[in-house]
Amino acid sequence: MSFANMMRTKSVEQSIAEGDEPEYQLKKRLTALDLTVFGVGVVIGAGIFTVAGRAAKDLAGPSVVISFVVAALCCALAALCYAEFASSIPVSGSAYTFSYASLGEIVAWIIGWDLLLELMLGASVVAQGWSAYLGVFLDHLDITLPESVSYGSSFDLPAFLLVAVLTVLVSIGIKESLRVNLALVALKVFIVLFVIFAGLFFIKGENYQPFIPPNQPAEQVETLKTPLIEWVFGFTQSHYGVTGILAAASLVFFAYIGFDVVATTAEEAKNPQRDLPRGILGSLLICTVLYCAVALVMTGMVKYDKISSEASLAKAFEDVGHPGFATLISAGAVAGLTTVVMTLLIGASRVVFAMSRDWLLPASLGKVNTKTGTPIKITVGIGTVVALVAALTPVGELEYMINIGTLTAFFLVSVAVPVLRRRNPKMERPFKVPFSPVLPIVSALICLYLMLTLPIETWIRFVIWMALGFIIYFIYGYHRSRLARGWSPEQKVEKSSL
């Protein structure tokens, strides 16, 4: 087992050629509009409907809007890196595939394993958020679910059933899924705009005072819940102030997770070189504007220390005496969060699909069903795991795990841009990150800093997850990958012609 073998890379041409193998060939059906809707559909989700309220209440106050801008800056820099790769290597798998062509097999495995953590846990968290808003909506209709199977119980039945139904839908076909997605995204954007414009009438100027609450020492916190950077340097944990804004940025970062999922569908885009950068950057821009507006309205309607941590947007209208508006928002959130879970399921299945096509995971998993044009085995397997995690995991335990997995992938993709430019300067790049290598390096440093602001227990869980991934890689993938066996699509063609 040699280090050189772990760093073996796959050429861009080989990656593209593998996508043309009949048993692993996905249908090219998505347009720039589909991709933008896809991105908006997954990004606007539990983050803005739930996490924004918690970040404002516990960490930043009204200045949470600055936290959204900081998180958006991090994502925008990473998005530029994703756009360059996605337009140059239009193959399913997103950052996993990009790194395989630039940084080597072991790094590709790390990113693929990270993306799987991000997308699967993301789908589980959003399914839990969906269940919370469903409970609020049903309460307004005087319908009460049994406590033993409702949101926050030992088995969240609504979250489980949501994932099960969406798994079936995603298995049928991505274009069919996106037709449902388009309608639900339109409804979700309407609800967000409704919150913004209706909420303007209930804003009180005094609620913005102070806009940046003075820094306050945090109450005694368990060591494991202390941000890693504070523990390492012996800082005293605190809320609000500048440190609170940055801490909130690492939390609301969760609200932006998903734009990178657009890159996982590269192989299914009709014109990936043109449409992928538009879909990635367009969806991120739209969501940033909406997020900042919602944050300003929410903290203007309700004093930051009174904001509800659960279903915060709906509860804000209840607090100003308009439960009818809360009912509408809850209904929209139920519909809107559905699209997020669906999109994350698609993204997770495409990452595993790419890894199985490279034989880092069993190749039989990735074979595409001839009728649906989708990898059904993978989709059903991932859907089952996500449904169980959503139903059985305590609420509020997963967001930071998603963030650390995503930030790791962003960090490595940012580093990969200048590396691939040096290794393959002549490769056609329809979209290029401006001011490289400066912007990619800045992107990597911001991602690294945000990772360090995450709690120690998150890092421990992340190390355990990565250790599990390394065990699987060294037992299976290292010896069985296409590159390990020297197998290429051209060899298959030659063999079949004999």
How would you describe this structure in keywords?
two-stranded antiparallel sheet, 67% helix, globular, disordered C terminus
Can you give a write-up of this model?
With 498 residues, the protein is mostly helical. The longest helix is centred in the N-terminal third of the chain and has 36 residues, at 105-140. The protein is 67% helix and 1% strand. Helix 4 (46-60) packs across helix 13, helix 8 (157-172) packs across helix 15 and helix 9 (174-199) packs parallel to helix 13. It has a two-stranded antiparallel ribbon. The chain has helices at 3-6, 12-18, 32-43, 46-60, 64-88, 95-100, 105-140, 157-172, 174-199, 228-233, 241-252, 261-264, 272-301, 312-319, 323-357, 376-392, 399-423, 438-452, 456-480, 482-485, 489-496, and strands at 216-217, 238-239. The protein has 21 helices and 2 strands. It is globular, with a radius of gyration of 22 Å.
**Element string (H = helix, E = strand):** HHHHHHHHHEHEHHHHHHHHHHH
Strand content: under 5%
Main β-sheet description: 2 strands, antiparallel
Widest β-sheet, arrangement of strands: 1-2
Helix content: 55-70%
Overall strand count: 2
- Mean of residue pLDDT? 79
From the N-terminal CA to the C-terminal CA, the straight-line distance is 34 Å
CA gyration radius, whole angstroms: 22 Å
Shape: globular
Number of helices: 21
Structural class: mainly alpha
Uncertain runs: 492-498
